[in-house]
């Protein structure tokens, strides 16, 4: 069901590696028999319809959830959720859950206190750039600003892997553009690996160089976008995803 | 778009040094200062009342002790007035104060985890380098120590406040509404309420239901302890003396005759037969006891003497501390293994 990791990437460090990974909630498997390896240096897109198991896979990768079956390691071979893994991964959960009653400055200070590294000047400069006042409470910011604040807090921790769960689902087109711009800058200029989930395919077209396609709790396809497109003689990520999802006869949310 | 980039990283290491514990002090304070301010306001308001009422009571009690001889009718009158004017309100205050540990525990303990789980912010806090079980341990210990210390200090003030009402020896400090307001028990009960709240918050995952569950759980535990448990901290003393001091905690009284159990309370028939009242009024208890003794009955009393008060405080404080540590340890263990 789940193809082996693409050849030629095994030499490099894998930011995420799973082996027979499964997670069951009650009687239903949210994710099962998932084996994949995402090499470092990519912006990897985790794609699939709602309920495909994207959030479950991300929660397992950041150590928020424990696997029912199989194993997941990150950043080489660190167990998910271990101190080294927490240190090297910055996670922005869906809807950017921040402490709404805390001003931006206090969120910076809180994150700095709970992290091994925190680049205060970078964070302040970025918030200044974005026009987010330090004394404004997070709950009073617009949706786009909240997402940018969460992303700023994540990047200021200088992660090796940035994990984003549906980062742009709630944002308007301009905010999406800005958000993805920041992510791409971090990935290109600073070598941060990125794993982001989305069910909004057009957004990923410009950014994703690696694809993991999930459907109904199983991995349908995984590999470098360019190679996958060439193999199927398709022009876009969207076509590619739709092809696989149609084969699996599941409606994808556009 | 911004041209800012993230500066280079230092060399990676596989097992990084943990983030220092002390960093949680500011985080805990910043996130819970409103709840702690609420505790300070609640206890502070009551402290002002106890201080004012206590000062007035001490002043009035000086008048009681200055009156000689104490058995003179005028002096008894002064004592009665003192009891009526100051003693009754003091007891009412003690009854109202029963809810204080429950409120502190529910409003500081329950939200610690419930709010994070309800709003989803645990996904943020628990994926930072500090680590989630260390985060939970630091937060719960800091807050638990803070509320228990505040409650203990308040218990000291209450002990001072109530001292004049114990002085005449008619009030037992074992009375349930007084026992748990003394420093050791008050600190321990507040701690227990906090620990119940923390675990309830983790299990229920919503703030308001967790607060309600904490209040209910605390009430059940407090009633069970006061009604069934406390009297068994030490085997009661037995006496046949008719005049057990009023400061003692009387467990039960019964009568024997010829070495065998006769009755718990003398029936009216028996009293009419053996010790008929000379007038239309009920006779004083001492007179009845004396009369029954003349007919060969012996009165037995089992009681806890007032000298055991502090050991009872420490026994109750001890098991509540153990319970609280177990509850908090369970909470942290669940945070560590819990699948989100």
Strand order of the largest sheet of chain B: 1-4-2-3
Radius of gyration from the alpha-carbon trace of chain A, in angstroms? 18 Å
Number of E-type strands of chain B? 4
Runs of chain A with pLDDT <50, length 5+?
1-11, 250-254
Strand content of chain B: 5-15%
Q: Count every helix of chain B, treating DSSP H or I runs of 4 or more residues as helices.
A: 11
Tell me, briefly, the overall form of chain A. globular
Would you list the SSEs of chain A in sequence order as H and E? EEEHEEHEHHHEHEHEEHH
Q: Give the N-to-C terminal Cα separation of chain A.
A: 25 Å
The proportion of residues in beta strands of chain A is: 25-35%
Largest sheet of chain B: 4 strands, antiparallel
Q: Tell how many strands the DSSP assignment of chain A holds.
A: 10
- Shape label of chain B: elongated
Question: Strand order within the widest sheet of chain A?
Answer: 6-7-8-3-9-10
Instruction: Tell me roughly what share of residues is in helical segments of chain B.
Output: 55-70%
Structural class of chain A: alpha/beta
């Amino acid at each position: 069901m789940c193809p082996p990791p693409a050849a030629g990437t095994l030499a490099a460090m894998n930011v995420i590696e799973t082996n027979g990974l499964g997670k069951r909630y009650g009687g239903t498997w949210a994710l099962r028999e998932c084996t994949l390896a995402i090499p470092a240096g990519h912006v990897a897109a985790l794609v699939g319809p709602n309920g495909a198991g994207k959030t479950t896979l991300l929660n397992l990768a950041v150590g928020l959830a424990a696997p029912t079956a199989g194993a997941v390691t990150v950043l080489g071979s660190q167990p998910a959720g271990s101190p080294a893994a927490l240190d090297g991964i910055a996670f922005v959960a869906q809807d950017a859950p921040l402490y709404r009653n805390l001003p931006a400055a206090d969120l910076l200070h809180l994150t700095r206190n709970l992290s091994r590294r925190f680049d205060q000047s970078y964070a302040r400069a970025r918030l200044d750039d974005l026009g987010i006042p330090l004394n404004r409470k997070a709950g009073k910011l617009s949706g786009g600003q909240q997402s940018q604040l969460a992303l700023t807090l994540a990047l200021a921790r200088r992660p090796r892997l940035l994990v984003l769960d549906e980062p742009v689902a709630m944002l308007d087109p301009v905010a999406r553009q800005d958000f993805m711009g920041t992510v791409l800058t971090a990935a290109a200029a600073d070598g941060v690996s990125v794993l982001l989930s989305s069910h909004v395919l057009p957004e990923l077209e410009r950014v994703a160089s690696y694809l993991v396609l999930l459907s109904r709790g199983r991995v349908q396809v995984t590999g470098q976008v360019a190679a996958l497109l060439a193999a199927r003689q398709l022009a876009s990520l969207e076509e590619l995803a739709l092809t696989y999802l149609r084969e699996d006869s599941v409606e994808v949310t556009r | 778009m911004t041209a800012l980039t993230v500066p280079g990283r230092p060399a990676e290491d596989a097992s990084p040094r943990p983030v220092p514990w002390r960093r949680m002090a500011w985080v805990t304070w910043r996130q819970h200062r409103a709840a702690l301010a609420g505790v300070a306001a609640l206890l502070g308001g009551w402290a002002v009342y106890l201080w004012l009422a206590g000062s007035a009571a001490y002043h009035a009690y000086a008048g009681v002790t200055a009156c000689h001889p104490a058995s003179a009718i005028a002096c008894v009158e002064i004592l009665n007035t003192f009891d009526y004017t100051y003693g009754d309100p003091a007891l009412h205050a003690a009854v109202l104060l029963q809810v204080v540990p429950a409120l502190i525990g529910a409003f500081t303990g329950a939200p610690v985890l419930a709010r994070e789980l309800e709003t989803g912010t645990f996904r943020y806090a628990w994926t930072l380098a500090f680590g989630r079980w260390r985060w939970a341990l630091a937060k719960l210990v800091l807050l638990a120590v803070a509320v228990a210390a505040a409650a203990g200090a308040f218990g000291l003030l209450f002990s001072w406040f109530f001292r004049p009402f114990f002085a005449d020896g008619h009030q037992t400090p074992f009375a349930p509404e007084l026992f748990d307001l003394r420093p050791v028990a008050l600190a321990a009960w507040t701690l227990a309420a906090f620990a119940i709240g923390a675990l309830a918050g983790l299990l229920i995952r919503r703030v308001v239901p967790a607060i309600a569950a904490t209040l209910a759980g605390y009430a059940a535990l407090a009633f069970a302890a006061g009604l069934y448990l406390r009297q068994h901290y030490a085997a009661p003393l037995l006496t046949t003396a008719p005049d057990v001091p009023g400061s003692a905690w009387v467990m039960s009284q019964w009568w024997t005759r010829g070495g065998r159990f006769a009755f718990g309370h003398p029936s009216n028939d028996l009293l009419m037969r053996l010790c008929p009242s000379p007038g239309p009024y009920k006779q004083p208890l001492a007179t009845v006891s004396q009369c029954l003794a003349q007919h060969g009955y012996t009165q037995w009393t089992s009681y806890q003497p007032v000298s055991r008060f502090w050991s009872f405080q420490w026994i109750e404080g001890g098991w509540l501390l153990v319970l609280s540590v177990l509850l908090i340890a369970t909470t942290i263990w669940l945070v560590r293994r819990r699948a989100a």
